[in-house]
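Quick log. Single chain, no ligands specified.
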Amino acid sequence: MTGRTTAGVRATAVIGVLLAGVPLDAQDTDRVLTEALSRRASARLQTLHQDADRLLSEERSLLGDLRRLEVEREIKVTEFRQADAAAHNAEVALDQLDSELRQLEEQVVSESPSLRGRLVHLYKLGQGRYVRLLLSTSDASSIRQAARVVAAMAARDQDRLATHTRRVAELTTSRQILLDRQLQASTLREAAARAKVGPERAVAARNTLIREISQRRDLNARLAAELLAAQQKLQAALTMFGADMPSGSGTLPLGPFRGDLDWPVRGALRRPFVRSTLAAGPVPAGIDIAAEEGAPVVAVHGGTVAFADTFAGFGNLVIIDHGYQSFSLYGNLAELAVAKGDRIANGDVVGPIGVAPTGAVGLYFELRVDGRPVDPVQWLKKR
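-> predicted structure:
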């Protein structure tokens, strides 16, 4: 592992030298290769435009869903507010009813002594009660007045008792109705609160998707513009074939082909990409692909061979400069099918699979964009 780590550091040093501007051997512009690059750029541009149309359609669909969900959310919020108000009103009415019941109880308590005294007096009069009270009047001339008083007392007691009994019954019934209404309102409020959570989460999820699609559309537009500029250079190169070529006219930027690069060899991923950290120390910045010995290894993107020689820890190593500070590395080759300075297209064979210094058969593959190692799997086609 130490030898492999040291080799990784040395490979990084080679890339550093390349990035520093070491001049590369150049070849004459090949019209056939330039035309192939132009066709590839056109095909990729068409794919990017299709992706842009698809993203726009997805965004419109999501915006429609978002509007529908926002209406649904507003309905649920309104239902929750109504249920909450109904529950609050029921609580207020119940509190008022309980207050009235307490007042009746306090009234009963306050009137209990006089009522109790009158009842005792009536009890002492025996079964006749009000009749005896009437006959107990000593002055015969006051009998008529006493009769009216007795009748009024009897009527008042009966009315008060009936009114109190009726009111207590009414309040008790009303209280039970309010309790049922409060329970129903509380149940509706809880249901409404739960119901509005779903639309709120759906709205948040749609907003997140719309932001992601918007970012992807921006990236798509930037990559398409970058690729269109490169295609225009290629067209200019074809027009000026045989004359001085514009700088960078024979390459396509790697960025627009993210996720669309062919795998360099058929095989399974044996070791994934691991981003190096200061704590972990230097580690190989690529991936290992298990493949049959002798299987052809192809360039994933067009460019110029910047390095083709043996390299400690990587056996026969090919480094292709794709321009725009982008490189691809192919290690553990059985032999070299290209030489430094060769201009090659994507799909061209750089050599067959060989045996790594560790004894494993397979390919070491590394990809650098803007001079930094990236996970090659994110740039290769899904399979």
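Residues 1-7, 17-29, 241-249 have pLDDT under 50 and may be disordered.
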